[in-house]
Design goal:
11 helices, Rossmann fold, 256 residues, 15 strands, 2 domains
Amino acid sequence: MMTAQRREEVKKYLLQYKTASVADMARRFQVSGQTIRRDFEVLEMEGFLLRSYGGATIKDQKTSVLSNQVKSELFVDEKKAICQQAARLIYPNDCIFIDHSTTALALCEEIRHLPLTVVTNSYRVIGHLSGCTNIQLICTGGTYHGGIEGFTGLETVRYLQQHCMDKAFLSCRAIDPLRGINDAYETVANVRQTVIENSDHSILLVDHTKFGKSGFISVCGLEQLDYLITDQPLNDEWTRLLVEKQVKVLDGTTGG
């Protein structure tokens, strides 16, 4: 395995498990402990992790490091469960928005059979649904961002300001109990803000790792959401907060 590939795998592991030891990573990748220490040193310089004696912990960042290609390989089953719930909210002939997130991307497999209008800023959503003759597929256009495999910028926002959708399916960088929905990039936040303002119903799709964290820029308050769909039941604190904000919660384990 090449050095760059191994370091991306280390990132994936830390994103999922939060901590990693030198010994475990050396066994996992069949390299020396010294090699793993060098990897940790480089990733610490990138701002991804914090080294500790014998290991490392992920750093809670305000901006994203992993590309969509890497993130799409994480929490695959959880994303599928989330999107199976989300698909229950979609009816024939709806006009929906699907954003560029890897969580929302999983929704494509659940809706391929439905007659729909799908608006998206995602390059990968276009690829997944382009062969579905029952779906009218519309791309927002804009400036292509390779890291998120999607379109953002002024042209994207202008398009979305001129069109209304029945339902918008979105994800985010993090959910903060005080600051609400957060993102890593201002251009991404602008797109999501505009979609929420121009959709009858806004549905947030997030796995359990997004809760209790914050991002670089706020997208909206929790009260602007209609539904939140996640992969695990929420604790009492989050449940009370979302009830207070009048957000309906569904999870992929209980059926809602």
